[in-house]
Structure formats: structure tokens, C-alpha cells
Design goal:
binds xylulose-1,5-bisphosphate; Rossmann fold; 236 residues; 8 helices; DNA polymerase, domain 1; alpha/beta; binds magnesium ion
Length: 236
């Protein structure tokens, strides 16, 4: 029985990556005097590393190996740059990034039917809160019984931990929950936690492998724009 919807955030609730997270990283690099610039295309590759801190660390190690940071200081550098990045994300997200089509309607209908709402994301909780307040309503965060985010678990998607955390906090069985995701990493995380998953693709994720998803659709649509089923057994 469906008791709760567990939403991913970035790419699922809203298209935050290209025009909010990405430029926020770039502004943070500039603020600390670095000329590092992540293009729209390159950022698509970097998205394979979930989590902002993890992404910065991966980039330094893979692409800036000459960067003069002693290894033991890399942790602090990453934390510092990520904090600056989140400041810019908070500014960029306000009024700029709307919810994806159909997301608000689904949330409202779920609330009306007594289906509980939760979040399971790799992103930092402050960033989640900024988006929910700006894109839903000032009381947006209170729509969700559980907001499982960022470092609340030790390992990020594609590991199942954040979904396990959310399901346990809801005091439900995974079979009673449905995940809404946009990426292969999110699907793997939800599946490994035993949570069935609907995928709403976006430009960064449309060519990924979604084997095992209940449904793969281009968006949650609106009442007057019925969604397109791209694959899956929607009618069964
Ligand atoms: C998206 C991510 C995050 C954001 C930045 O996760 O991979 O890393 O790009 O997050 P999800 P930070 O789709 O699970 O929400 O807040 O850590 O910078
Ligand atoms: Mg996502």
C-alpha cells in the first residue's frame, strides 16, 4: 500500500544543477582566487560524483593535480569552498529555480490523500531548505515529515543509506514507499533500499540506464499536458 512519496531534490523537484549549483561552484572558486570554471557540459560528467564536497575533492584530485594543497589540508579546503558555494547557491536559487512541472500538483494530491511526503537527497540540508522555501512556499519544508539530506548518512547515493534513513524515520516498510528520482545514482540508491522508483528524466540524465524503474517519464506533467511514458509498464 502506498503510504509515502520520497522525493529526490536536485534534478527531480527542480532543475537546480545547471543554473544554480554549477554557477555557485564557479563563483566560490573565483572568490578564493581560482580560475576554475565548470562548463555546462563538463558539469554533466562531474555529476557522476554525488555530493558537493565529494565533487570538489574529485575535481581537485583528477583535474588539478598540480594544485599546491598538501593532502592533509584538502579536507579543510573542500569544506571552506563548499560553504562559500552554498552561500551563492542560496542566492541563486531564490526566485530563479521553479519546481518542475507537475511536482506541486503531485505533492498537493498526496497530502490530500494522506500519503506522507519525505525527501532523500545527496545535497546539503541548507540548500534543500532554501529551495523548498523559495520554490514551494515559506512553509515548504514543513510539507515533509522527513528531510534526509547530505551528511546525515556516511555514504551518499548510489549507496542506499539515505533512503534507508528516510524509510526508518517514517517508520514504514520500504514496500510502502515510492521514490521519485531523476538519475541512475538515485535509482540505484532507492532500489538497494527496496523502494520502488519512478524516474523523471532531465537533460543531464536522459541517456542513463534506468533498468528496474517502475516507470520512466519525461516529467510529472500537468493536468492539461498528460505525461509521456518513455518506458516501463505503466498500464499494469
Ligand atoms: C544532487 C547532487 C548534489 C548537488 C550539490 O543530489 O549530486 O551533489 O549537486 O549538492 P540529489 P551540495 O539529486 O540526490 O539531490 O549541496 O552537497 O553542494
Ligand atoms: Mg537528482
Amino acid at each position: 500500500e502506498l503510504r509515502a512519496l520520497i522525493f529526490d531534490v536536485d534534478g527531480t523537484l527542480a532543475e537546480t544543477e545547471r543554473d544554480a549549483h554549477r554557477p555557485a561552484f564557479n563563483r566560490a572558486f573565483r572568490e578564493v582566487g581560482l580560475d576554475w570554471e565548470w562548463s555546462v557540459e563538463f558539469y554533466g560528467e562531474l555529476l557522476e560524483i554525488g555530493g558537493g564536497k565529494e565533487r570538489i575533492r574529485h575535481y581537485v584530485q583528477q583535474y588539478q593535480s598540480d594544485f599546491p594543497i598538501p593532502n592533509q589540508d584538502l579536507d579543510q579546503f573542500v569544506v571552506d569552498v563548499h560553504e562559500i558555494k552554498n552561500k551563492y547557491f542560496g542566492q541563486l536559487v531564490v526566485d530563479l529555480i521553479p519546481l518542475r512541472p507537475g511536482v506541486l500538483r503531485l505533492m498537493q494530491e498526496a497530502k490530500r490523500e494522506g500519503v506522507r511526503l519525505a525527501i532523500a537527497t545527496t545535497s546539503d540540508p541548507h540548500n534543500v531548505e532554501a529551495l523548498l522555501k523559495s520554490a514551494i512556499a515559506p512553509d515548504g519544508p514543513s510539507w515533509f515529515e522527513v528531510i534526509a539530506a547530505g551528511d546525515m548518512v556516511a555514504v551518499k547515493k548510489p549507496e542506499p543509506d539515505i533512503y534507508q534513513y528516510a524509510v526508518q524515520a517514517l517508520k514504514l516498510n520500504p514496500e510502502d514507499c515510492l521514490a521519485i528520482e531523476d538519475s541512475n545514482q538515485g535509482l540505484l540508491a532507492a532500489q538497494a533500499a527496496g523502494v520502488k522508483t519512478v524516474i523523471t528524466i532531465n537533460n543531464y540524465t536522459r541517456n542513463q540506464d534506468f533498468t528496474g524503474a517502475e516507470l520512466v517519464i519525461d516529467s510529472l506533467g500537468e493536468p492539461d499536458e498528460p505525461f509521456t511514458v518513455l518506458s516501463g509498464d505503466a498500464g499494469e
